[in-house]
Specification:
Length: 55
Amino acid sequence: MSSLKAGFIVKVDRFEVARFSSMYKITDHPFLIRFISPTIIDEVITDAPEINLQL
């Protein structure tokens, strides 16, 4: 979604969790998060920890 930006912490509300049924996956986790039309993504501004992107 266009609301997601690298280095920011967000709160996500109103989304679906479903079983991942495809045999071509990038993870072994059995579930996926699906953004739907009522999904709300809000940037967390106050008292959020800083994410260091340097490894």
